[in-house]
Design goal:
Helices cover 47% and strands 13% of the residues. It has helices at 11-23, 34-43, 60-70, 85-93, 106-132, 144-156, 173-182, 204-209, 226-229, 245-257, 283-288, 294-300, 317-327, 341-348, 355-369, 377-384, 394-397, 405-423, 428-434, 439-449, and strands at residues 3-7, 27-31, 48-52, 76-80, 98-101, 163-166, 191-195, 234-238, 259-261, 268-270, 274-279, 303-306, 338-339, 374-375. Helix 19 (428-434) crosses helix 20 (439-449). It is globular and about 85 Å long.
């Protein structure tokens, strides 16, 4: 149900507009002046605004400009009892959707409101369709790990809780994010993806929050950031651990308060966005090394989801291969070919360091390079190579055989720090730099493990 905000100082106009809009199924909020109207916008979700030009305390055109600055996508319909061409042009230039003269034609009011809301919905649908066309993959597999992920999605998708997805490169973290969006009440809204690792540190803030004209040399016009584009939808921040510390600081406020300023701007922009993030890094280690803010981590990690590597869910490999064989069949109008059982076993023996992405590319390759209707182990080996699942070095692990996991981790960490100290002549600063951590954090480790450093 769409919500309309009516801002007019005439009580009779407010009551008439509220009555006809409610009859048409809209929810209506009213305000007596511009200041009260702007306050309402900050408190409630609104789909369109009907705004009188002549208002006490703050003029309608000034209110219009402030609405467009803060809520750029908000359709605003201007009404006036002193209509003239100059005023109409001024209102449209300031961003008004339409201009209506009093006395109002109630039929025309309803038509314009309907058109304004439908246009914004079409814009959101267009953005959503564009984003949905960027992937042709699906979440496949019946392994215990995949069933667990689906259950977490089922339980959490309907909420607006923030989700942090972890896993190696190529495991399908983006697919999980899209599945969360698809099952949420925001499914009609946009799904906007940002690869934080692919954006230079100097541009990440502009990419996320937008910028004002003249904010920097190449900012020749105002630009919306990804947070604004994802309004009423889902913002997916991939490789979030690669974001610079200054950008993390600004994002902390945006995630917490759903408001921010564009780069070079002073006005606060309000959004309604669900934030889903993903990383292939150990964020706990990044926090210890001082590269990621712990307070931001706690904000993002409300619901954690770990996507396992393909080698950890090999029971899903046959259904994945079958799907990719159909997806990448060659020629495209021919029947999909089949991988034999011994071919599947040969694929299971491989380590798949690139995970699902590598598997997808491999299946596409054998579809093009092989003429056989049935692809057996010999063909698989020819194109896949001789690499098999890597085996741990028994000699390296022998010392940890009788330890529990935590004891083994601490033992390894202690030995590793001692080795690095020896390599750098017990110099704390150089050792900390080699370990990619702050000297203060290294001192904490030395105290924890009782390591004496001889000067």
């Amino acid at each position: 149900m769409s919500r309309i905000l009516v801002i007019d100082d005439e009580r009779g106009i407010r009551e008439v507009l509220e009555a006809i809009l409610v009859d048409e199924g809209y929810t209506v909020t009213v305000a007596e002046d511009g200041i009260q109207g702007l306050a309402r916008l900050g408190e409630e979700l609104v789909d369109a605004v009907i705004l009188d030009v002549w208002l006490p305390n703050k003029g309608g055109i000034d209110v219009l400009k402030e609405i467009k600055d803060t809520y750029p996508g908000m359709p605003v319909i201007i009404i006036s009892g002193h209509g003239n061409i100059d005023l109409a042009v001024k209102a449209v230039k300031a961003g008004a959707f339409d201009f209506l003269e009093k006395p109002l034609s109630l039929e025309k009011v309803l038509t314009v409101v309907r058109n304004a809301i439908e246009l914004e919905e079409l814009k959101r649908e267009n953005l959503m369709l564009k984003s949905s066309m960027q992937t042709d993959l699906q979440m496949l597999g019946d392994s215990a790990a995949m069933q667990s992920i689906r259950e977490i999605i089922r339980q959490s998708a309907a909420s607006d809780s923030r989700i942090l997805i972890s896993g190696e490169n190529g495991t399908g973290k983006e697919l999980v994010a899209r599945e969360i969006h698809r099952h949420s009440h925001r499914a009609h809204g946009p799904f906007v993806e940002v690869n934080c690792a692919a954006i230079p540190d100097t541009l990440i803030e502009s990419e996320l929050f937008g910028h004002e004209k003249g904010a920097f040399t190449s900012a020749v016009s105002q630009r919306k950031g990804k947070f604004e584009l994802a309004d009423r939808g889902t913002l997916f921040l991939d490789e979030v651990a690669d974001m610079s510390l200054p950008a993390q600081s600004k994002m902390l406020r945006a995630v917490q308060e759903m408001q921010f300023e564009r780069v070079g701007g002073e006005r606060t922009v309000h959004v309604n966005v669900r934030v889903v993030t993903a990383t292939n890094k150990d964020i706990r280690a990044e926090i210890s090394a001082g590269r990621f803010r712990e307070d931001l981590y706690f904000r993002l990690n409300v619901i954690p989801i770990h996507v396992p590597a393909l080698r950890a869910r090999l029971e899903d490999l046959p259904v994945l291969v079958e799907y990719f064989m159909k997806l990448h069949r060659y020629p495209a109008d021919g029947p999909p070919r089949r991988v034999t059982e011994d071919g599947i076993e040969r694929m299971k023996a491989y380590d798949w360091p690139g995970n699902i992405r590598e598997l997808k590319n491999f299946v596409e390759r054998i579809n093009i390079m092989s003429d056989a209707d049935e692809i057996d182990a010999e063909v698989i080996a020819q194109h896949l190579g001789t690499g098999r699942r890597s085996q741990p070095k028994v000699e390296l692990l022998e010392a940890f055989r009788d330890m529990g996991l935590n004891e083994a981790k601490e033992s390894f960490e202690r030995q590793y720090i001692e080795m690095k100290l020896a390599e750098h002549g017990n110099n704390i600063s150089r050792t900390a730099e080699a370990l990619e951590m702050y000297p203060s954090n290294l001192h904490g480790k030395l105290r924890k493990y009782g390591i004496k450093v001889e000067r």
